[in-house]
Design goal:
28% strand; alpha/beta; globular; Rossmann fold
Length: 250
């Protein structure tokens, strides 16, 4: 019998662990999955690559969603269709406030919905908020390994680089980081009754500065300080999933 696969991502409709860690890059999904016991790849279609395995005895799904919220939300929706009930996003981001350094982790409390997709699903007044228990679990996990981290609001924005049109800026509004997918996850989670949150590794400056920095060679996310942050972030994310499961059983 042919396995029943969901139509867009081609992930299995049944059989996935109900706790998932999602990342943008399919290669990073494989790297994170390598930390699991008994990891196996279950699907790979377009940017959507999925694995299952176990972290300290906890069954876990690891999946990639690609770049940008319109494509990522398709994975989030189909993970929910497949029975996943807890989703943490682990990604990279640009710093938005002083004191947030390259390689640091930002644990998202909520996100600005400038993602290019959720405004077509819900009015702008609808919030994109992390589950409090996800925030606390990520913070506990970061403290346990001594990972430099911050809590705060993040800006999910569809445009990665500025173009000819002026872009509104949240500079001065106290946001911690800017990225491209988290608000779509948080909105999906609220609509589908999921527990969701996110932790981001700082890999450079505010996205509005990318053009000038690229011209001077300044922006480079492929540095040792970022790689070290990514390693810490993977451990923090997986451990937070375990802590959430432990809390549910208590």
């Amino acid at each position: 019998m042919t396995q029943d696969l969901l139509p867009v991502t081609r992930i299995p409709r049944t059989g996935l662990p109900e706790r998932a860690l999602v990342v943008g890059d399919p290669a990073r999904a494989a790297t994170v999955a390598a930390l699991l016991d008994g990891a196996e790849e279950v699907s790979y279609h377009r940017e959507y690559r999925a694995f299952r395995g176990a972290w300290k005895g906890l069954p876990v799904t690891v999946a990639s969603h690609g770049v940008g919220a319109p494509g990522a939300i398709l994975l989030f929706q189909e993970l929910a269709d497949a029975g996943v009930r807890t989703v943490l996003r682990f990604g990279t981001a640009g710093a938005m406030r002083p004191g947030v350094a390259d390689g640091d982790l930002v644990i998202a409390e909520a996100a600005v919905r400038d993602d290019g997709v959720t405004h077509q699903l819900l009015p702008p007044e609808y919030p994109a908020v992390s589950a409090p228990e996800a925030v606390f679990a990520l913070q506990r996990a970061a403290r346990a390994i001594g990972a430099p981290h911050h809590r705060g609001l993040v800006w999910t924005r569809a445009a990665f680089q500025p173009g000819l049109l002026p872009l509104f800026s949240y500079d001065g509004a106290g946001l911690a980081a800017i990225e491209m997918e988290l608000s779509a996850l948080l909105v999906t989670a609220s609509l589908r009754g999921l527990v969701a949150g996110g932790v981001l590794v700082i890999d450079g400056a505010n996205a509005d500065e990318l053009v000038d920095e690229q011209a001077t060679g300044g922006y480079n996310p492929h540095r040792d300080v970022v790689a070290a942050g990514v390693e810490r972030g993977a451990l923090v994310s997986l451990e937070a999933l375990r802590l959430l499961a432990e809390e549910e059983r208590a």
